[in-house]
Amino acid sequence: MKILVCISKTPETTAKISFTEGNSQFNKDGVQYIMNPYDEWYALVRALELKEANGGTVTVLNVGDSTNDIIIRKGLALGADDAVRIDTEALSAYQTAAQIAAYAGDKAYDMIFLGKESIDYNGSEVGGLLAEMLDLPFVSFVSNLEIAGETSTVSRDIEGGVEVSEVTGPFVLSAAKGLAEQRIANMKGIMMSKRKPLTVVPPADVLNPVEVVAYALPEGKSGVKMIDPDNMAELVRLLHEEAKVI
Fold first, then answer.
1. Considering only CA atoms, which of 211, 199, 215 is closest in space to residue 28?
2. Residue 30 pairs with which residues in a beta bridge?
3. Verdict on whether the full-model pTM lies above 0.85
4. Residue 78 · residue 45 · CB < 8 Å
5. Within 13 Å of residue 12, how many CA atoms lie on the same side as its CB?
6. Looking at domain 2-218, what is its CATH homologous superfamily?
7. Which of 31, 88, 151, 223 counts the most CB atoms within 10 A of its CB?
C-alpha cells in the first residue's frame, strides 16, 4: 500500500492576523506556524494506521519553501517514511493542486489523503481539483475508512445521517474529524525523523489563475444586550431591526 499525504503550513490558531501592502499581503511578522490540523490529526494519522495494519509506505508532500521543513519533519516524526517538498510558494488552491498532480501523476499511489480544508482559507478546494487533474475518484469530508481487499468503504456525515460509499482502485480522500485520533510524536520518532529523506523537487511550470486583490478582517463583535424576560416586545423589535443573519 502506497499512500501520499498532502500537508500544508497554517498560522497557529491564536495568531494575531493583520495585512500589509494595502491589505493585499498577509503579515507574517511574529506569526507562529503549525501543520494544518486536518492534514495532521486525521489524514496523516489514518494513513499511518493503514500502513501499520497492512504494510506499505506513507509519504508526506508539501508545496512551499524551506521554512516549511519544520512541519514536514513533524510528519516524519509521527511515522511517515519519507517526504517531498515542491519548492514553490502555494499561491492558490488551483496552483497547489496542479503542482501536486504534476509530481504525483506517475508515482502510482494507491491513495492520496489530505485534510478537508486548511484552517486559514477554509476553501476545501484542493482535494477536488487534485482528483480531477489526476482523473481519480474523490471522496470528501470522510469520517471513517475501512479497507477489505481492493475495496475501500468510506463514511461521511451528511445532514440527518451518514453516507456510506465504496470505492475501488486509487482515489483521493479529504479527511474530516473522526477519521483518526491525534497522535503526539515520541522522542524516538523525533530523532528518527532527522535521518529520513526529505526530497526537494523543482516546481512544475504551472499557471496560477488567482490574484489576491485585498483581504479584510471581519467586523468586530458588538456588546451583548440584556433584555428583561418580561419585555418580549423589545426583544422582537431588536430581532427585526438589529439582528444580523449569518
1. 215
2. none
3. yes
4. yes
5. 9
6. HUPs (3.40.50.620)
7. 88
